């Protein structure tokens, strides 16, 4: 209490106002629990590490196989005092699905992660301070449909770093962009450069800052939106979503049809040769 009275005396504030501001700041708690399933590849693991470095209000948990019991993730979130969960679910050591859930009441969204490129792989020239807060930039298409508005709110509550959170810096030096292209959500991360690239000095007053990409890159294809956390009634289902198993089956069937056509051509040629034998040459034994 002595510190509060001292602060109130120096800043000319009432002690009750300081207590109210402190309580208001303590109520803003957005924490993310990042969990991966067994079977993730090195690329999936590096993407998870990149997101953990960009989100200082996240906590990382050991691998959990929660395919049969998804409620286990809500229990883990409660144990770690987190109200958001990122669950990276790997299947067949090649497909990655991302669950973003608001624990424990929901809603939750299931995405298929495509076109993954990590920061180490891209080697972009952009850079940002570790723990700095990002600016979220959303495409105008997020306001056109109800399910996109819900996705915008989910991304805002998860990717926006709260003020005063642990390990965070009070700076804005990079931008998270979310764009809707081809019915998918494209994620990019850019650095805000406020210096002249030629001279290295500060920009003029009328000059605008530039953006330099940092990474990572990935595309989120929405599969389904649930009312609850990791389950419950379906609020939205993507009618244009095609599972990667169906895509691979179509590729295999195309290759099989090509092979079947080649075999049919060979059999047709053999039958043609049998049905149309060459006539014997009467002069083939003249010089024998």
Structure description:
- The protein is 33% helix and 30% strand.
- The chain is α+β, with helices and mostly antiparallel strands.
- The protein is elongated, with a radius of gyration of 29 Å.
- The relative contact order is 0.13.
- Mean pLDDT is 85; it is low at 4-9.
Estimated structural class? alpha+beta
What about the largest sheet? 11 strands, mixed
Q: Give the rounded overall mean pLDDT.
A: 85
How are helices and strands ordered from N to C?
HHEHEHEEEHEHEEEEEH
Number of strands: 11
Determine the number of helices (DSSP H or I, runs of at least 4 residues): 7
So what's the overall shape? elongated
Low-confidence stretches: 4-9
Helix content: 25-40%
Could you tell me how far the N terminus lies from the C terminus, measured between alpha carbons in angstroms?
124 Å
Offer a concise description of the structure.
The chain is of the alpha+beta class and 288 residues long. Helix content is 33%, strand content 30%.
Key terms:
288 residues, eleven-stranded mixed beta sheet, 33% helix
Give the topology, please.
Blueprint: H1 2-11, H2 15-27, E1 32-36, H3 42-54, E2 58-60, H4 71-79, E3 84-91, E4 95-102, E5 108-117, H5 119-122, E6 132-138, H6 146-159, E7 169-181, E8 184-193, E9 210-213, E10 217-228, E11 231-237, H7 244-275
Parallel strand pairs: 1-2, 1-3, 6-7
Antiparallel strand pairs: 3-4, 4-5, 5-10, 7-8, 8-9, 8-10, 10-11
């Amino acid at each position: 209490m002595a510190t509060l009275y001292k602060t109130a005396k120096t800043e000319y504030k009432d002690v009750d106002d300081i207590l109210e501001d402190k309580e208001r700041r303590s109520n803003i708690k957005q924490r993310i629990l990042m969990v991966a399933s067994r079977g993730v590849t090195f690329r999936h693991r590096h993407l998870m590490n990149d997101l953990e470095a960009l989100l200082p209000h996240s906590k990382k948990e050991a691998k959990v196989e929660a395919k049969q019991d998804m409620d286990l993730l809500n229990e883990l979130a409660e144990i770690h005092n987190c109200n958001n969960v990122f669950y990276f679910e790997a299947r067949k050591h090649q497909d990655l699905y991302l669950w973003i859930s608001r624990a424990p009441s929901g809603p939750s969204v299931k995405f298929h992660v495509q076109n993954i490129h990590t920061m180490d792989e891209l080697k972009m020239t952009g850079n940002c301070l570790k723990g700095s807060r990002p600016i979220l930039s959303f495409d105008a298409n997020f306001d056109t449909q109800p399910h996109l508005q819900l996705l915008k709110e989910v991304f805002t509550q998860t990717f926006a770093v709260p003020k005063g959170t642990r390990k965070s810096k009070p700076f804005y030096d990079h931008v998270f962009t979310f764009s809707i292209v081809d019915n998918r959500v494209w994620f990019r991360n850019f650095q805000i450069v406020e210096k002249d690239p030629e001279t290295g000095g500060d920009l003029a007053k009328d000059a605008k800052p530039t953006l330099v990409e940092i990474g990572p890159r990935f595309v989120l294809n929405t599969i389904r939106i649930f009312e609850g956390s990791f389950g419950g009634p379906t609020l939205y289902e993507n009618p244009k979503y095609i599972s990667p198993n169906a895509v691979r089956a179509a590729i295999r069937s195309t290759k099989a049809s090509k092979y079947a056509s080649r075999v049919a051509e060979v059999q047709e040629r053999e039958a043609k040769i049998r049905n149309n034998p060459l006539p014997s040459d009467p002069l083939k034994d003249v010089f024998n």
